[in-house]
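Protein modeling request. Please complete all fields; requests missing the sequence field cannot be processed.
Requester role: graduate student
Desired output: 3D structure, token encoding
Chains: 1
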Amino acid sequence: MLYYKVPESLDGKKIINPNKKNWDRFELVANELYTKTECKQRGIPLGWLDLVNIKKTETYFFFGARFN
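Delivered output (68 residues):
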């Protein structure tokens, strides 16, 4: 499955999502995995992230974030 992985250089980068009415704010976590639809929903530019191909069974969730 294709995921977008947050590089180490963007760890702690603050994102403000203008797609939501309340301007949802959150920070990126290094090595966190996102799907394409999650990136769209959260307003993360795909050009910032690294594209990786990882089996869905090789991922896990830790405190609500997906990792490999």
